[in-house]
């Protein structure tokens, strides 16, 4: 077991709500189609001047405040994102820039919707190995700026937001009991942003072709997501030596309710234990699990010693699942 305790969690969500009814006026879609296929009713959209680091910094500051900790007391700041402010430096460094924060090691994790759990895996290992005593893991995305707003098959799915957790070493019996993670890069092209990197640098042609936006084969993602998220969760439970009945909450990555429900059913965790926020926020990629965890904590759904099963799947493909004792 890799011991740590979560000192605090927090979330930052842009105030602007984009409803399905408003999407009906923008593209050829209906509220009914979106709700039936995805469970999403509305999502938050960042203002034009807001970047991922702005949401990440807001969530980080709130979490530090709730933990009674100055940000410079952190040893490491990990930001999980697929929508960085810039290709370099990392969004984590832009968070430091915004906060005037010097000192803590800072870097991004690029693992799509699995990113926050990848970040937790790293933070837990750093704390267990002595590389850090106190770590912040932030999941933050401004998906609305990489979505093609004329592509109805993708633009209805995503939303913007950030969630943060502050972890610190402890002697108590808490932290990651078991985990499973992996990736399959042979399927990289199923879900990706083609342009803007060194493969296809930005050009007038790439902008005209809308190659700087999400390209996705939704059906393929769907099938792989259900398999990887459920198998990952089952493996993490096994490695933790606990049963589905022992789990207080299941927090699956919030892409759509059909993926989440199929994952829950295969994992054999009771329906009432599943946290679902996708109806209000859509798919915020790396931010969905920390935001859901923070909302569950705020709602009093977790008490000391409870077990949380978390499982995610995303671009790459990547996947990760963990059993956390809070
Ligand atoms: N409104 C109305 N009709 C639509 C819309 C829309 N917004 N989008 C697609 N359609 C149409 C399609 O054009 C198609 O029409 P056709 O039969 O005339 O060609 C029809 O609906 C069915 O399309 P499918 O793609 O087969 O619909 P499906 O049931 O697979 O649902 C969806 C699509 C919701 C994207 C689904 O595949 C899915 O959720 N995939 C997972 C994708 C995902 O969550 N990705 C996020 C990143 S990865 C992750 O987070 C796990």
From TrEMBL:
<dbReference type="InterPro" id="IPR013747">
    <property type="entry name" value="ACP_syn_III_C"/>
</dbReference>
<protein>
    <recommendedName>
        <fullName>Beta-ketoacyl-[acyl-carrier-protein] synthase III</fullName>
        <ecNumber>2.3.1.180</ecNumber>
    </recommendedName>
</protein>
<feature type="active site">
    <location>
        <position position="283"/>
    </location>
</feature>
<feature type="domain" description="Beta-ketoacyl-[acyl-carrier-protein] synthase III C-terminal">
    <location>
        <begin position="237"/>
        <end position="325"/>
    </location>
</feature>
<comment type="pathway">
    <text>Lipid metabolism; fatty acid biosynthesis.</text>
</comment>
<keyword id="KW-0275">Fatty acid biosynthesis</keyword>
<keyword id="KW-0276">Fatty acid metabolism</keyword>
<dbReference type="GO" id="GO:0044550">
    <property type="term" value="P:secondary metabolite biosynthetic process"/>
</dbReference>
<dbReference type="Pfam" id="PF08541">
    <property type="entry name" value="ACP_syn_III_C"/>
</dbReference>
<dbReference type="GO" id="GO:0033818">
    <property type="term" value="F:beta-ketoacyl-acyl-carrier-protein synthase III activity"/>
</dbReference>
<keyword id="KW-0443">Lipid metabolism</keyword>
<comment type="similarity">
    <text>Belongs to the thiolase-like superfamily. FabH family.</text>
</comment>
<comment type="function">
    <text>Catalyzes the condensation reaction of fatty acid synthesis by the addition to an acyl acceptor of two carbons from malonyl-ACP. Catalyzes the first condensation reaction which initiates fatty acid synthesis and may therefore play a role in governing the total rate of fatty acid production. Possesses both acetoacetyl-ACP synthase and acetyl transacylase activities. Its substrate specificity determines the biosynthesis of branched-chain and/or straight-chain of fatty acids.</text>
</comment>
<dbReference type="GO" id="GO:0004315">
    <property type="term" value="F:3-oxoacyl-[acyl-carrier-protein] synthase activity"/>
</dbReference>
<keyword id="KW-0012">Acyltransferase</keyword>
<feature type="region of interest" description="ACP-binding">
    <location>
        <begin position="254"/>
        <end position="258"/>
    </location>
</feature>
<keyword id="KW-0444">Lipid biosynthesis</keyword>
<dbReference type="InterPro" id="IPR016039">
    <property type="entry name" value="Thiolase-like"/>
</dbReference>
<feature type="active site">
    <location>
        <position position="113"/>
    </location>
</feature>
<keyword id="KW-0511">Multifunctional enzyme</keyword>
<feature type="active site">
    <location>
        <position position="253"/>
    </location>
</feature>
<keyword id="KW-0963">Cytoplasm</keyword>
<feature type="domain" description="Beta-ketoacyl-[acyl-carrier-protein] synthase III N-terminal">
    <location>
        <begin position="107"/>
        <end position="185"/>
    </location>
</feature>
<dbReference type="Pfam" id="PF08545">
    <property type="entry name" value="ACP_syn_III"/>
</dbReference>
<comment type="subunit">
    <text>Homodimer.</text>
</comment>
<dbReference type="InterPro" id="IPR004655">
    <property type="entry name" value="FabH"/>
</dbReference>
<keyword id="KW-0808">Transferase</keyword>
<dbReference type="GO" id="GO:0006633">
    <property type="term" value="P:fatty acid biosynthetic process"/>
</dbReference>
<dbReference type="GO" id="GO:0005737">
    <property type="term" value="C:cytoplasm"/>
</dbReference>
<dbReference type="InterPro" id="IPR013751">
    <property type="entry name" value="ACP_syn_III_N"/>
</dbReference>
């Amino acid at each position: 077991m890799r011991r740590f305790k979560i000192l605090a969690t927090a979330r930052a969500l842009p105030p602007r709500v984009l409803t399905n009814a408003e999407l009906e006026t923008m593209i050829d879609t209906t509220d009914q189609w979106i709700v039936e296929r995805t469970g999403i009713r509305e999502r938050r959209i960042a203002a034009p001047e807001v970047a991922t680091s702005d949401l990440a910094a807001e969530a980080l500051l709130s979490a530090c405040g709730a933990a009674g900790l100055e940000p410079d007391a952190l040893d490491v700041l990990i930001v999980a994102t697929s929508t960085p402010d810039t290709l370099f430096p990392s969004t984590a460094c832009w968070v430091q820039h915004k906060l005037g924060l010097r000192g803590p090691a800072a870097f991004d994790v690029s693992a799509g919707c699995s990113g926050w759990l990848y970040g937790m895996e790293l933070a837990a290992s750093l704390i267990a190995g002595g590389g850090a005593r106190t770590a912040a893991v932030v999941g933050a995305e401004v998906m609305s700026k990489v979505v093609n707003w004329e592509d109805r098959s993708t633009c209805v799915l995503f939303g913007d937001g950030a969630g943060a957790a502050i972890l610190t070493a402890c002697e108590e019996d808490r932290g990651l009991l078991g985990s499973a993670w992996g990736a399959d890069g042979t399927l990289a092209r199923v879900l990706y942003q083609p342009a803007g990197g060194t493969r296809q640098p930005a050009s007038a042609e790439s902008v005209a072709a809308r190659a700087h936006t999400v390209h996705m084969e939704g059906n393929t993602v769907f099938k792989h997501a259900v398999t990887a998220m459920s198998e990952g969760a089952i493996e993490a439970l096994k490695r933790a030596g606990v049963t589905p009945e022992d789990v207080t909450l299941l927090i699956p990555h919030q892409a759509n309710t059909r993926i989440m429900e199929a994952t829950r059913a295969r994992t054999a965790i009771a329906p009432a234990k599943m946290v679902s926020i996708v109806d209000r926020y859509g798919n915020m990629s790396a931010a969905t699990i920390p935001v859901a965890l923070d909302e569950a904590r705020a709602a009093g759904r977790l008490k000391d010693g409870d077990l949380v099963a978390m499982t995610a799947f995303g671009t790459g493909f990547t996947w990760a699942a963990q059993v956390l004792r809070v």
